[in-house]
Design brief:
Radius of gyration of chain B: 27 Å
Number of strands of chain B: 0
Mean pLDDT of chain B: 85
Number of domains of chain C: 2
Distance between the termini of chain C: 33 Å
CATH architecture of the largest domain in chain C: 3-Layer(aba) Sandwich
Radius of gyration of chain C: 25 Å
Keywords (chain A): Cell membrane, Membrane, Sugar transport, Transmembrane, Transmembrane helix, Transport
CATH topology of the largest domain in chain C: Rossmann fold
Largest sheet of chain B: none
Largest interface: A-B, 101 and 95 residues
CATH class of the largest domain in chain C: Alpha Beta
Strand content of chain C: 25-35%
Helix content of chain B: over 70%
InterPro entries (chain A): MetI-like (IPR000515), MetI-like_sf (IPR035906)
Protein name (chain A): Multiple sugar transport system permease protein
Structural class of chain B: mainly alpha
Strand content of chain B: under 5%
Chains: A mainly alpha (306), B mainly alpha (289), C alpha+beta (359)
Number of helices of chain B: 12
Family (chain A): Belongs to the binding-protein-dependent transport system permease family.
Oligomer: heterotrimer
CATH superfamily of the largest domain in chain C: P-loop containing nucleotide triphosphate hydrolases
Number of strands of chain C: 20
Largest sheet of chain C: 6 strands, mixed
Low-confidence stretches of chain C: none
Order of helices and strands of chain B: HHHHHHHHHHHH
Bound molecules: adenosine-5'-diphosphate, magnesium ion
Organism (chain A): Pseudarthrobacter enclensis
Chain lengths: 306, 289, 359
């Protein structure tokens, strides 16, 4: 490969505006249009529609399905005065905090950190299996855990000699927290691995040369390098964990709503019970929470770039 | 420093250091072992059960057999569902590759008014409008469009969802390819479409390959969208059929489920590690690629 | 084959930077023309504007008798060799060389034989089926040349084509390039920031600074009679000694030492005028004995240049450094008291604005 151009200056601003192939604005728009159309129709429009639907009493079937009535903010008031909604919100917070912030982040970092100081072969094996959990399709991983946690034949009871504990029934929230940690740790591990790899060895060596111990090395050399990554990682996995539907395959929100996190709540409310309007109202609340997290994230990205 | 002071101050830290070293080694090994146990044990079932003559829910060494795969081959729903997964995955892949590369190329090379805002909005949208948050309106939209129970509809919804990310990554990729290639072709009189075909697409091939694999992996494992948009079992992809196998009625057929799980998992795992070996992991807004 | 003429050519980038500022140049048919200047002075911009890869803000460009100012780059019949060569990594060398013919819809067999023919001329035999990635830097550079040659352009545009080669290879490639240009006789514009390259290759050199032309002339003119102090210090492998002083009694006072007026300046300066006196280290010599009209000083540094040495002398009184190139057997020791001598016709005088005095 030829070396990239050096010293030629930024070769933008070609024929008017950086158009190196002479594509022209009209053709560029034409190239862009199909993608934008698809995105508008199947991503943007649904989101906007949520706004409207949330203000109606739309139902999946019955009279309200034919002639939905405008009910204003009733759905929102209903949602905000509904114990089930608050139960779900609370569970979601616990789920996100437990499996993303504590589980994936902390475990991912611990693994990345430990793997910098073990043999290469050990590291490769550990990383392979952590990644495997992430890659295997979710309907398979949920079954693997369903089998693990089974009351009478599950491997977990056999290992811990916990008799016939029905983990998914007795500890549903804890189960999906552990499950989601298991699935998602890979991302944090990878992110922190690459962050740790970017710490210049010469800085660590200089620290060691003046007699810094492991803790001092971490605090003075490593941490300043990965601080930004900790935040990025937390925001991203919070966003994903908040929106994951996979626990539905493990507990379906039960028993008695005890693992009924928001995505599952919406699904059951809107598509099982048919309350589309109310489901939309809660969807909108979710989108707003997403928006807040994503904006903070993008703001951080921008700051880092400049 | 006198000799006496010297000897006391060297021996004690030395033994303490050795102790610390030993503890560090212990901690490291125990932690590694626990991590391995946590991540390996659940997966062992997937490795053993498909080859076990009497598969149970627990992990155990198999009485070796290939019979489970025969059970799988004799189940038309299962086989058809793998085909359906393939249709959805390849269909979405083609849609996002074609639309994504055209869009990202124009965005990278032509300064369309409002480009930066557009890119920012795309990135924002793709992270906040997730399948879960938008399932209600998406479902209704597909009902209105008459695209419920249509694989084409599923492809459109999935493509729309991943396109922003695809455009973002590909634009990044195109931005980083030197423009002198295109300029050179242009000086010899090549027209824009010709340049796109002769130069840009071949140069972007590694990026396109990554995106192709990524799109396939995303769609292959997706459960929610086909679950709410498809009705007939004959059109459902493996992700959904797998779920119905172990939730619908009676004792789950573990021979079938185990072989099916393995066959369903292998393609994405293989593709994933293939891409990883060739191009390495990259972090584009947190994508598995 | 064609000449190139620019009239009041301006290229202003968004943000107001003028890459090319009021450029009037005529490059003759068949000439090897060098654009020389420090990095960022606008050489690439000028070249790309001639190629049509940048749209000029105002002014005009003619190639031969064709007005090309608003023409598409592909219609200007120019070929460009980029600094990074821009060889298509996914095509074989043969396909790379024949690419211009493919655009011209020449049949495949014909393309092949032309690529072979040009490849032979540029010593690329046996490499035609390889990919660019499998070639050395020097070979890649020749492939880029070959591709340019195949298109049979009116004009070659080279943007620092030698700068990615290591020092030794660069000399070889330089000779090769000069011979090729002589053979083909195609008008060539060659951009470089390396003054030695420009002096060695070009028939004429244009020296640029901040988008503006500083001087246009043959290598000899530019070297011996720089138009201003900028050109004087930019051209030459050791830069010219430039000492501040003023005119007094038909001579030049530098500190309290007096030297003779340069031949060119006689009769063009008045007493008391502030000037800069210039002399190339190669045109200076050193004497261990006092010399009337020489500059007295002490040797402080001696740098070996192989067959010669670069001596730095600190002038007595003013303490200003003057550099002198002496042949290898005549190096004075550090701390030696010496007199710097010269022929007045080899020295130059610049006025307060830095422009050379004389014609
Ligand atoms: N695309 C561009 N946009 C804005 N300024 C540019 C651009 N390209 C070059 N410049 C500026 O124009 C001037 C001349 O650049 P260039 O022609 O690349 O110089 P050279 O080739 O002599 O090193 C520089 O100050 C550079 O920063
Ligand atoms: Mg340049």
């Amino acid at each position: 490969m030829p070396a990239p151009a050096a010293g030629t200056g930024p070769s933008r601003a070609v024929v008017d505006d950086g158009d190196v192939a002479g594509l022209g604005k009209a053709r560029a728009m034409a190239f862009l249009a199909p993608a934008l159309l698809l995105i508008s129709l199947f991503l943007v429009f649904p989101a906007l529609w949520t706004l409207y639907l949330g203000l109606t009493n739309y139902r999946l079937s019955g009279s309200a399905a034919k002639n939905p009535q405008f009910v204003g903010v009733d759905n929102y008031i209903n949602a905000l005065s509904d114990d089930r909604f608050f139960n779900s919100l609370g569970l979601t917070l616990l789920f996100v905090f437990g499996s993303a912030v504590i589980g994936q982040s902390a475990l991912g970092f611990a693994i990345a950190w430990t793997m910098t100081r073990v043999r290469k072969s050990v590291r490769a094996v550990v990383e392979f299996f952590v990644l495997l959990a992430w890659i295997i399709p979710s309907s398979v991983t949920t079954f693997l855990w369903y089998a693990m946690l089974d009351r009478s034949n599950g491997t977990l009871n056999a290992m811990l000699s916990t008799g016939n504990t029905a983990w998914l029934l007795d500890y549903p929230l804890q189960s999906i927290i552990v499950f989601n940690t298991w699935v998602g740790t890979a991302f944090s591990m990878l992110l922190f691995s690459s962050a740790l790899a970017s710490v210049p060895p010469s800085q660590l060596e200089s620290a060691r040369m003046v007699g810094a111990g492991a803790w001092a090395q971490f605090r003075d050399v490593v941490f300043p390098h990965i601080r930004g990554h900790v935040l990025t990682n937390t925001l991203l996995i919070t966003l994903w964990t908040f929106n994951t539907f996979t626990p539905y395959l493990l507990t379906a929100g039960g028993p008695d709503d005890r693992s009924n996190i928001l995505p599952i709540f919406i699904y059951r409310l809107a598509l099982n019970d048919g309350a589309l309007g109310q489901g939309s109202a809660i969807s909108l609340i979710m989108i707003i929470i997403n928006l807040v997290i994503a904006t903070v994230y993008l703001r951080l990205l921008k700051e880092r770039k400049s | 420093m006198t000799a006496v002071q010297g000897s006391t101050s060297t021996t004690r830290p030395e033994s303490r250091q050795m102790l610390r070293h030993f503890l560090g080694l212990m901690g490291k090994s125990v932690f590694t072992a626990l991590v391995l146990a946590f991540f390996v044990i659940p997966v062992l079932w997937l490795v053993f059960a498909p080859f076990d003559a009497h598969p149970g829910l627990n992990v155990k060494l198999p009485e070796f057999t290939f019979n489970n795969f025969k059970v799988l081959l004799d189940n038309p729903t299962a086989i058809a569902s793998l085909g359906n997964s393939l249709i959805l995955a390849l269909g979405s892949m083609v849609v996002v590759l074609v639309l994504g590369s055209l869009a990202s190329y124009s965005l990278s090379r032509v300064k369309i008014p409002g480009r930066d805002l557009l890119l920012y909005t795309l990135l924002l949208l793709s992270s906040i409008i997730t399948g879960t948050a938008a399932m209600v309106p998406t479902f209704l939209l597909m009902v209105k469009l008459g695209l419920i129970d249509s694989q084409f509809g599923v492809i459109l919804v999935l493509s729309g969802g991943i396109l922003p990310t695809v455009i973002f990554i590909l634009k990044d990729f195109m931005d980083s390819t030197p423009k002198s290639y295109e300029e050179s072709a242009r000086l010899y009189g090549a027209k824009p479409l010709r340049i796109l075909w002769d130069v840009v697409i071949p140069l972007a091939r590694p990026g396109l390959a990554t995106i192709a694999v990524w799109a396939v992996v995303q769609v292959w494992g997706n459960f929610l969208v086909p679950y709410i948009l498809l009705r007939s079992p004959s059109k459902s992809p493996a992700a959904v059929v797998m779920y119905t196998f172990y939730t619908e009625g009676g004792q789950p057929n573990l021979a079938l489920i185990s072989a099916f799980s393995l066959l369903f998992s292998i393609p994405v795992v293989a593709m994933y590690f293939f891409v990883n070996r060739r191009y390495g992991f990259r972090f584009h807004g947190g994508i598995k690629s | 084959m064609a000449s190139i003429t620019t009239r009041s050519l301006i290229k202003e980038y968004p943000g107001g930077v003028r890459g090319v500022d009021e450029m009037d140049v005529t490059i003759h048919d068949g000439e090897f023309f060098a654009l020389l200047g420090p990095s960022g002075c606008g050489k690439t911009t000028l070249l790309r504007t001639i190629a049509g890869l940048e749209k000029s803000t105002s002014g005009s460009i003619k190639i031969g008798d064709r007005e090309v100012t608003n023409m598409e780059p592909g219609q200007r019949r120019v070929a460009m060799v980029f600094q990074d060569y821009a060889l298509f990594p996914h095509m074989s060398i043969s396909d790379n060389i024949a690419y211009p013919l493919k655009i011209q819809k020449v049949a495949k067999a014909e393309r092949h034989s032309r690529a072979e023919e040009v490849g032979d001329k540029l010593s690329l035999q046996g490499l035609l089926e390889r990919r660019p990635g499998q070639l050395s830097g020097g070979q890649q550079q020749r492939v880029a040349l070959a591709r340019a040659v195949t298109s049979r352009p009116d004009v070659f545009l080279f943007d620092e084509p030698l700068s990615n080669l290591d020092a030794r290879l660069r000399l070889e490639a330089r000779t090769f390039l000069k011979k090729l240009q002589l053979d083909l006789g195609v008008t060539t514009v060659f951009v470089t920031h390396d003054q030695a390259e420009a002096l060695a290759l070009a028939d004429r050199i244009a020296i640029m600074r901040s988008g503006k032309m500083q001087q246009l002339g043959t290598p000899r003119e530019v070297f011996q009679r720089p138009a201003n102090t900028f050109v004087a210090s930019f051209v030459g492998s050791t830069s010219m000694n430039l000492l501040k002083g003023n005119v007094a009694d038909g001579g030049v006072m530098i500190g309290h030492q007096k030297v003779a007026l340069p031949a060119d300046a006689v009769g063009r300066v008045g007493d008391g005028q502030e000037i800069t006196w210039g002399a190339r280290p190669e045109y200076l010599d050193i004497s261990l004995d006092p010399v009337h009209g020489g500059l007295e000083g002490t040797v402080t540094v001696s740098e070996n240049l192989g067959a010669s040495a670069l001596i730095t002398v600190e002038l007595t009184g003013s303490g200003e450094p003057v550099q002198v190139v002496v042949s290898e057997d005549h190096e004075p020791g550090i701390g030696t008291r010496v007199w710097v001598t010269f022929e007045p016709r080899r020295t130059l005088l610049f006025d307060a604005e830095g422009l050379r005095i004389g014609d």
